[in-house]
Amino acid sequence: MISFTSLLLPLDGSQLAARGIGCATWLASTLQSRLHILSATSHPLPPREELARLRVPDAYWSHVILHQAPQFPENAIVAAALEHHAGLIIMSALGKGAATRSETSITSIGHVARAVIEQAPAPVLLLPPAYRESLPWRRMLVPVSGEPEIDEALPVAVTVANLLALQLHVMHVMSDFPRETDLAAAAHYADSVHHEYSQRFTELMRRPLTHYTEEECRCIRHAALAKGDVAAELHSHIEQQRIDLIFISWHGDFMTGHADVLKRLLKEIHCPVLLIKAARHAPLKLKVGDEIE
Amino acid sequence: MNIAAVIFDMDGVVTRTAELHAAAWKTLFDEILLKHAARSGTPFRPFDIRADYLTYVDGRPRYEGVRSFLAAREIELADGDPSDATDVETLHGLAARKDALFAQALQREGVQVYASTLALIYALRAQAIRTGVVTSSRHGRQILHSAAIETLFDSRLDGIDLETRELKGKPDPDAFLACAKELAAPPIRSVLIEDAIAGVQAGRRGGFGLIVGVDRGGNRAALASHGADVVVADLGELGVADLVARLRQGQASIAWRIEQEGFDSSREHEMESIFAVGNGYLGVRGAPDTPLGGSLDQMFVAGIYDHTQAAQPHPQREFRTADGGGFSKLVSLPSPFRLRLHAADDPLEIRPDRSHAYRRVLDLRNGVLETHLLLNNDGRRTDLHTRRCASLTDMHLLLQEITIELENHSGTVELDSSLLDPRVAVRHPHVELVPSPCDQLDTELLYFRTKSSQLNIALASRTTLVGSEHDASNWRISAHIGEKLIFRRMVTVYTSRDATDPAASALAHLRQLQWSQFEALLAAHTEQWDNVWKRADVRVSDRPAIEQALRFNAYHLRSAADHDSRVSIGARTLSGPGYEGHVFWDVEIFILPFFLHTFPELAEHLLQYRYRTLDGARHKAQKLGYRGACYAWESTVTGEDVTPRSIVMQTSGNEIPIFNGTEEIHVTADVAFAVWQYWAATTDREFLRRAGVEILAETARFWASRCTPSAGSYHIHGVVGPDEYHYTVSDNAYTNWLARFNLEKAAWAIDWLKQEFHQDFQALVERLGLASAEPDEWARIARELYLPQPNSDGVIEQFSGFFALPEYSLRKEDRLAVPVNRLFDWEQINRLQLVKQADVLMLLYLFPELFSQEVVLANYRYYEPRTDHGSSLSPAIHAAIAARLGLRADAERYWRQSLALDLSNTMGNSSLGVHAACMGATWQALVFGFLGVCFTEQGPIAAADAAARLPEEWRSVALNLAWRGKLYPVEVQR
Questions:
Q1: Confidence of residue B724 (pLDDT cuts 50, 70, 90)
Q2: Cα(B38)–Cα(B877) distance, rounded to whole angstroms?
Q3: Which of A210, A214, A237 has the highest number of chain B CBs within 10 A, making it the mutation to test binding with B?
Q4: Per-residue model confidence (pLDDT) at position B820
Q5: N- to C-terminal Cα separation, chain B
Q6: What is the distance between the alpha carbons of residues B670 and B87, in angstroms, rounded to a whole number?
Q7: In this predicted structure, what is the pLDDT of residue B823?
Q8: Residue B317 pLDDT grade (very low, low, confident, very high; cuts 50, 70, 90)
Q9: Other CB atoms closer than 10 Å to residue B439's CB: what's the count?
Q10: Contact A223 B251 (CB under 8 A)
Q11: β-pairing, B655-657 with B646-649?
C-alpha cells in the first residue's frame, strides 16, 4: 500500500532540478508529509540559510528535513529513499547534465533520473523537460490498457486523487498497432457494440479497483475511449482537459524498445508524470484444464 | 493414469530427525521464554514440544519458525541480519542458534530412517516412478548422505537450495513445484508425502494430485483439515497400488469441482461469475462472503427488470443509448450471503496488505460453493470456512453456513449478517429500499422496489449459532483457542411477480423452516442435483478436465433455468450483468437442444416464454409495418424489443447505429424452428395445440408480409444475418432458409390443428382473423422464396453481393480477438469479406440432411478462414461441422476453445457472467458433431463413424439423451 508520510526531493544544484521545489512543498503540506530534501552542494550552509537559498518558502520549513552533501548520485538517492521510507520521489527528468550536452544530444531523461526510476523502491514523480508548474493540481489522468500490471496505476491514482481531492480522468486508447500484450490483455471489445463496449470498458476500470468502494471511486470524473497513436491521444487529452498530472504504471525498463509511450510523453507534455513500477501479480490457480490432467 | 513422481518431505517422513529438530527448538525457545518471563514478570510457559512444534515450526524454514512462535507468544525481537551470530538476540540470531543446536544433536545422535518409507521408495523406483525429496533444513544433503540414501532420489532440494534459488519456504509451494519440475512431473499427476501442516498446505496450493499426510502423533485432524487427502500413521500402510488408486480417485473427484487456489484481485470479477450459484429463479455471484470494496456481490432474480438509465457509473456515460424502457435491464440486488466478520478485532476479509490463503471450491455434484480463508495477522491465525447454495428444491430458499476457528489464539468473534448493504443506493441504483417493519425480532426483512417497473422484492433472513437457542443478525462471542463456531443462515426471497405480498410470503416461508431441518434442506438440494446429473452428466473416460468442463457448463445451464414460463435464460444467465439479462436467439438455437434432451419439461417452459411474449412480437411486427409476429432481437419480460437504435460515444461524438433490432429478424424463424424441434423430440400434442401452432402461424404471417415478390420469386431485403458485421443485406442464406422452414411448418401445423383439434382450430382462426387462404399462401411463398444455392464451387453466397466484396486478410492470431477498430470503422467492416460468426455454416449445421458432404466441405473451406469468431457462439458450430466432415484437428481445436471459454476467459469478458449459449453449443457440438447423434423411432443413435470422429486421446464417451418420453443411454467407444 502506498504511503506518503515521507517524500524525497533530490536537488543537484541545477535550475531544472529546482523546479521540483514548488510541487514537493505543496505535496508535503497538503499530505502532511515529511519532505527530505537532498541538496547537492559543495558549500554546505546552515539549514535555514540553505532552505532560503533554495527558495523554499518559510511556510513549508516545518515539513522539511534537509540533507546536504557535495553530490547525490543515483545510488545515494535510491539509498536515501530506502532509509527515509520515502513514499514518493520527486525529481526532474533532466538535471545538471542537461546543461553540458549539446542541444541535439538532449534526451527526455538524464542518466540519474533514469537510474532512479528503474531502481527506486518508491513511485517517482518525474518533471518532464518542458515542465510548467501548475499548482494546486485539479485533474489527473490515468491510462488503462487491460494489462493487470499496467493498470496497477489506477488504484494508486484513486488513493492520490482522494488524498488531494483531485478529479480523476481514465482513458483507454486502443492502439492502431496493438502489441500482443494489448490483445492478450482482455481489453479488446467484442460482439454487440451497445452491450459489450460499455460494460467491458466499465469492467476495465473496475478490475484494478476490486479493493475500492464506489465512494472511493467517485473521484473518477471522466472516462474516455479512443483509438489511434497512444501517446498522441494521451497528449491531446492532457492538453484539452488541462490535466495537471499523469499516472503511468510501467515495467521498469527504459531500454530501447521499451516504455515508448512514456518516452514520447516525457518529450512532449508539460505536466509531471507519476511513475508506478508494476509489481509481480499475485498468483491464482484455477484447477481446470491442463492443471488437472 | 500413472503416477508421474512421488515427492517426500524429509524430516519425519524419511528420516527420524523430527525429534532432533523438536528438541533443538525446545532448548532454544525455553531459554528465551525464561528470559522473557524474568523480564516481564510473567509466569514461564515452556515450549510444548508437541503442540507448539507442530503448530508453529514444523516444516517451516528456521527464520519463519522463530518468527511464527515468538509472534504467537507476543514476544518482539528485532529482525537482525542473516549473518547474525548465534548469541545475538534477533530473529536471525535465534535461527542461527537453533541451527547450531540441531547440528550438535545430529553429531551426537546420528541419523535414523523409517524403514517403511524406504520400502515404499524402493517399490516406487522398481516401477520406474521418479522420487524426490524436499526439506527446509540446511543440513538436508548432510543428513541424506549420513543415512546413505541420497541416491534414492532423482531430485533433492534442501534449505541451502531454497536459499540460493530464492524459493519460498512452506506453506508456499515453490520448493515442491521446483522439485516436480526437476522430475519433469506435472504436480497434478504427482504424490506429495508430508508430515507438517505447512507442508500439506503447500501441496494443496501447488495443486498436487494426491497429498499423503503422515501423522507421527496427534496431528491427524490438522493434516486432514489443511489439505491432506489421506493421513496414515506410517507409510507401511500404503503400497504403490494404493497410491495409484487414490490418485485416480482424486482425479475423478477433481472433475466434480472447480477449485481456485490463491487470490488475484484483477481476476476477481471473472471468478465471481464462474463461482455463481443459482436455481433459475435467482442467481448469486460467487463473491467472498465478506466482500471486497469493489466486489460485484450481486443477486439477480429472473424477471426483475427496470429501466436502463438509472444513475450510471461514469465509465458507462462514455456510451449513451436511448433508454429501452421500464423493463430493459436485469436488476442487481444485494447479495444475500454478505457478512461482516471480526475475530479479535481483525476484520476477516481479504485485504491486499494482509497475509492470507484463499480457496474457493464449487462442488458441481452438489451445487454448493465453499470458501476457505485463512488469515494470518501477525501470527494469529483465523480460519473462515463457508458453504452456500441456492436450493434447487425450494426456489425461494438460500442456505449459508459459516465456520470460524481461531486456530492459535483466543478472542471475541463478531458476526453481522445484516442483509442491508449500507451502500445499496450506489451499488444497486435500480432499486430503492422501502421501509417494511418486521414483527419478529430475530428475523431481518428487506423490502426493495424497482424505480421504474415498480416491482417489489422481499428478502427475509435468520441467522443462528449452532448450539444456541436463538436467532440474531449480530453476534458477539468469546472464542477460545481452537474452538469452532458454526453459524447458519437461511434467506427467503419473494417478488411481486410471485406473490401479492412478497414480504409476507418471505416471512411466512422462513418461519416454517426449523434449524433442525438445515441439514435436511441441504440434503434435499444435493439430492436434486444428483437427479440432474443422472440425466445431464457426460462421462469421458480418463479425461477429467473434459468431464469437469462439461459438468461446469451443465451446472451453469441448469442453474439458469426455472419452471417459470414467464422468463427465459439471459445471455449471461443470472451469473452476471452482461447483456442486461436480455434473451436472444441464443436460447432457441444454442441452449434449447441441451434441455430438450436432458430436461424436456424445462425446454417446454422456455418455449412457453415465447408464447407468453407473442403479443410483444405482434407489436413489433406492427411497428415495423408487417403482419403477424416478429420476435424481439432482445427480449425481457414483455416481449417488446429493447434493442437500442444507436449508441453515441460522448468523448468523440461518434454515433454508431444498431441494426439488430430492426434487421436481425431471423430470430423469429429461430423460435419457430425451436417449436418444431420440441414437437419432434416430444410429440407433445398439448403444447402444439395450445401454443406451438399459434407461434408458427403468427411468425409465418410475419414472413408472408416481409417477403418481397420480384421476378417470379420472393426475396427478403434489409436484414442482418447471424454474421452481424454486415447489415441491410438482401437474401441472407440463413434467414431465407429458416423463413422457408417457418412458412412450411406453419402451413402443416394449421392443417394438423384442423384435423386433430377442430374446435381449437376454429378458435384460433377467429382469434387471429386467419383467412382460409393464408396457410396455402404461406406454402406458396415458401416454394417461391429465393434460397441461395451452392455455386459451381459448392459455396453458398452468404447474402447477395457477398462474393463481390473485397477480401479481408485475417491473421490466425486475430481470431477470437475481434478487430479492435469495429467501434470506429464499422462501415468499413460492412464492406469486407470478414465474418463474425458461423452464418452459412450455421445453416448447414441446422439442416445436415439438406446438403451433401461436398457442399458442407466447400463452405467450410470458404468461410472458416474468413471468420474471426467475434461471438462466443461461433467456435462450437465450427467444431460440429468439422467433426461431421472428419476434420478432427479443426474440430477438436474449436471445440476446446468453446468448452473452456469461461474457465479460461478466452474472450476476456467472463466477468460479466458466463456464456450460456456457448455452453449449450459446446454440448451440441459433442452430441450432434462428434457423436453425430440422430433420432429414430427407436431412440437416439450415434453415427456409424462416431468412434473415429472422437478426439484423439478419448477412449469413450457416455451420456443419456431424452427422446419422446424416455431416457436413452448413448455410448461411443473407440
A1: very high
A2: 77
A3: A210
A4: 45
A5: 18
A6: 82
A7: 56
A8: low
A9: 7
A10: no
A11: antiparallel
- The letter for the amino acid at B21 is H
3-class DSSP state of B772: coil
CB B8 within 8 A of CB B187: no
What is the DSSP code (8-state) at residue A219? G
Hey, what's the cell of B758? Answer: 377442430
pLDDT value at B709 more than 50: yes
- E strands in A12-154: 34-40, 64-69, 88-92, 124-127, 139-143
Is residue B618 pLDDT above 60, yes or no?
yes
Torsion angle, alpha carbons of A278, A283, A286, A289, to 10: 80
| CA gap B716, B630 in Å, rounded | 14
Cis preceding linkage at B171, omega within 30: yes
Only one residue has cell 433420432, namely B935
* Rounded average pLDDT over B141-168: 92
Q: What whole-number percentage of chain B has pLDDT above 90?
A: 74
Residue B423 Cα, gap to closest chain A Cα (Å): 8
B230, β-bridge pairs: B212
| pLDDT confidence tier of residue B300, bands split at 50, 70 and 90 | very high
Query: Could you identify the residue written with the cell 467433426?
Result: B883
What is residue B425's DSSP assignment? H
Q: Cα separations (Å) of A183 from A147, A284, B819?
A: 9, 21, 10
Q: What single letter denotes the amino acid at residue A238? A: I
Q: Which three cell numbers mark B59? A: 516444516
Give the minimum alpha-carbon distance from B273 to chain A in angstroms, rounded to a whole number.
13
Crossing angle of helices B693-706 and B733-756, rounded to 10°: 130
pLDDT at B936 exceeding the cut of 60: yes
Q: Which three cell numbers stand for residue B726?
A: 454486415
CB contact under 8 Å between A221 and B314, yes or no, is yes
Q: Which residues contact B420 (CB under 8 A, 6 or more apart)?
A: B334, B433, B444, B446
Grid cell of A263 as nine digits: 518516452
Residues B502-530: pLDDT tens digits? Answer: 999 999 999 999 999 999 999 999 999 99
For B333, the grid coordinates are 440486488
